[in-house]
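Practice problem: predict the structure.
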Amino acid sequence: MGLKDHIAMVTGANSGIGLRVTEHFLGLGMTVIGLDKNIDNLKGLNERLHPLEVDLTNDVEITRSFQWSEENLGGIDILVNNAGIGGVTSLLDGNPVEWRKLFEVNVLALTHCAVEAVRSMRRREIGGHIINITSNLADHVPSYAPFHFYSATKHAAKAITEGLRKEVRNFSIPIRICSISPGLVKTGIFKYSLGDEMDKLIYDKYPSISPTDIASAIEYIIRSPENVNISEINIKPTGSES
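Answer:
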């Protein structure tokens, strides 16, 4: 089955990495289900794109999106768990409301979507790919305090990815699990969480990569032979410290 016959689901598809991955998949001839709380950028983008307005903190809405994929398209072959949000305050100045929201989106939604994808693939006896976008902050804790809880969620997401890989490795169908840990990517995540001034400061001070670089890495993963499971990719900007 060529890539043009694949059906992919991308979370956080309305902007940043998710939007670029969605566009890249469409350019490969794939059918894409784009999940996001806001789908304004997805409407009318392509006839093979199916935008679904989904709140990823809502378990019922996540489950319904997978049901929709099976009822209308026969299920998915690829899941890209991209949705994520950044922190605003340090741990000491933070509060449970902020921590809970980060954990719900960055960890619980990622896990829920991955588990739903595995269940769907097993029911249909079709192997596929689950690709979780984590972060280089899944490997260390930065000095910048507003990133501390965010980093904790990415550590958790990376651990869950490896746990999933271990749990599916003996299945009769080849479900391949991968985490991509990017360094600084030029998206709107900092503008959304920290404001325009901090966004500009970060990208002026540190080297970055683009969402296109992540999309290209994902294409490399899904083009790999069936006997190859690329379990982790770290992508860093040239010249970056970490």
